[in-house]
Amino acid sequence: MTKIQLKEINEKNWEKCISLRVGKDQEQFVASNIYSLVQSRYETSYIPLAAYDEEEMVGFVMYGKDPDDGVYWIVRLMVGEKFQGKGYGKQILLKTMEQIKMLPDCGSFIITSYVPENTIAEKLYEKVGFIKTGEIIDEENIMKFYIV
Ligand SMILES: CC(C)(COP(=O)(O)OP(=O)(O)OC[C@H]1O[C@@H](n2cnc3c(N)ncnc32)[C@H](O)[C@@H]1OP(=O)(O)O)[C@@H](O)C(=O)NCCC(=O)NCCS
Question: Residues with beta carbon inside 6 Å of ligand 1?
Answer without folding.
Answer: 22, 26, 29-30, 77-79, 84-90, 114, 118, 120-121, 123-124, 127
